User: Fold these one by one.
Assistant:
Number 1:
Amino acid sequence: MPKPKIVILTGAGISAESGVATFRDPNGVWANFDLEEVATPQGFACNPAKVQDFYNMRRRQMGSVEPNAAHQALARLEQALPDEVLVVTQNIDDLHERAGSRRLIHMHGELGRALCLACGAGSPWMDDIAAQSKCPACEAMGRLRPDVVWFGEMPYRMEEVGDALTGCDLFAAIGTSGSVYPAAGFVEEARAAGALTIELNLKCAGWASRFDEQIEGPATQVVPAFVERILSGKG
Ligand code: APR
């Protein structure tokens, strides 16, 4: 597959208008849950049931939300420019793929997959993960964890993302606060390689100054307009 010319990084803000809470906005996930307890390997070792409950709840919520106009616009962009667009998401929901994005990297894993601690196999998993849950590959019981990347763990497919960033002409970050590395460093990698960098956010603050251009507004409004701009050749 040819290297993508356009790399789009997405964060929780793109799913906010679908009804998925962001992490660091007031009343976001980390205002209501202790990150150390539910999103670290140490938290899981200490209290696996608490961690499973947290992700079981989030997995159930995923069934009641739908992709919004921003996810759909990115899928449209990929369809219009086949082979040119890569979406790298920090989100563990499945709204990009449900909207139709196909060239997609879930760098922080997926709520809809489980990982077996006994054999290392990953498998699709839409139910709750419970003590009686059996790994479809090795049949071990009670050894499944959510296939999500916790703090202190290595995000997925970083080599592929690095390659894409050094070869792209346009890098856009949508709905992310840029608080978590390595994603927060992608803008510099793309910029160093000569790409135009654009941030789209409800409120451009903090890390926005690291981009060539900022577009402020709700994702469901600014992303479709941004996609139209690229498709009309003014990107
Ligand atoms: N449209 C556009 N942007 C929005 C909207 C919206 N409707 N609503 C909120 N935002 C923006 C906020 O302004 C904020 O900058 O989305 C961003 C969300 O930031 P975070 O909550 O920090 O989420 P994110 O950047 O995705 O977090 C990165 O942190 O906890 C971890 O693993 C988790 O993947 C996550 C990572």
Note: The longest strand covers residues 109-116.
Number 2:
Amino acid sequence: MQLNYPALFQQQCYINGQWVAAQGETQAITNPSNGQVIGEVPMLGRMHAEQSVAAAQAAFEQWKQTTADQRADILRRWYELMMEHQDDLATILTLEQGKPFAEAKGEISYAASFVQWYSEEARRAYGEIIPSHRPNGKIVVTKEPIGVVAAITPWNFPAAMITRKCAPALAAGCAMVLKPAPETPFTALALAKLAQDAGLPAGLFNVVTGDALEIGAVFTSDTRVRKVSFTGSTNVGKILMNQSATTIKKLALELGGNAPFIVFDDADIDAAVDGAMVAKFRNAGQTCVCANRLFVHDAVYDQFAAKLADRVANLKVGDGFDDGVVIGPLINAEAVAKVQEHVEDALSKGARVLCGKFAQGEQLFVEPFVLTDMNDEMLVASEETFGPVAPLFRFSDEAEVLARANATESGLAGYVYTRSLGRAWRVADKLEVGMVGINEGLISTAAAPFGGIKESGLGREGSRHGMEEYLEMKYMLMGGL
Ligand code: ADP
């Protein structure tokens, strides 16, 4: 691996400001593009998870007493270092995750933007003074950092899913222990290296790789951990919520989605195709806000399908470092198997393939699919595919499509394309989701509150609301004035 700053590639964990080597077992990390081993990380467990929590607790005691300016300065420096080392970070990211290098660079600047945003927001943990119910009293509300936060993150955005949590947490005055995804630990460790370089005090940001069950058990049961912030599958979210019940932890859960993408007959079809390309095929379809079900009005169905298939058939699939590649490999064989299952199920129930195919043998590359003649009995209608498959469902009526779009336990994102202002509002209001793209296929930004309803999770990340997640209110009644 060619890095300008080789120290970014760390094969050790980062606990209490120290680099901790493997004490025995290690885990090899492979490049999904070719199966080659990139390096290895320690397989740590309960003991190191507990050490990291203890370190975070001790660091928190000091950090919560710092001024917002002090915290802002360090976060700002961390942001600048991420941007300075954007290419190196993206190289590590593409190697372990597979996404095209240009997309990886985009993720690094997106990830860094959270650190920038919250370096500024650190100054705005405002409280409140509320008119008192008593003549000689005052009701004062202050905001305090919640304490030690445990984060567990997934592999699809190895950098951004971390900074969305740690930036607001650190800005608020909290400390963090992190278990990154087992597939993509090196990006997390590179961020830790830059945190160290930025002068973040020891113990505030700890990265522990290893046994997910053991580390997760400590994170969800240790009384010193006040909040668990998880991004990943709905099933694991439910397990962590259960485990957290015994110590009444606050929870932030960013779970799976099943986003509807609705194209009405009055839509700008070219804009809708552009939107579908990003909403569906970014990160090879491996994002929780990816359009999972594309509902297209009967009157424009064939036109939309032809235009989309034309674009999709020209997407270059391959190694993320190769020129012009926009679709990398899927993360692992299980991911490919799930996509295969969804496509085969649809075909067995009458769907047609406009484009797409699977690679031969062990390869994790999937030529992106466009499927037509979909119906609601097919697996894709109820399950998140998490891969490069655009299934087109036909509809003819606004009320009908809303009912079908909402017929899922997920409620993360939804997209609607229409030129009618009234319809845009009506549909956006009635979609049972946390986020709506109206004539937009890309909705994520540090400036907006990202999150879902129903089984898609709890809490929001990004914007000022994202920092509130790491603050507790304290109400003081001052009497006898
Ligand atoms: P994905 O299917 O995208 O890998 P998961 O929900 O399985 O999503 O994983 C997301 C994160 O949760 C990863 O860091 C993984 O190691 C972690 N994880 C999975 N199962 C558990 C568990 N039982 N306890 C704690 N962490 C877990």
Note: The mean pLDDT is 98.
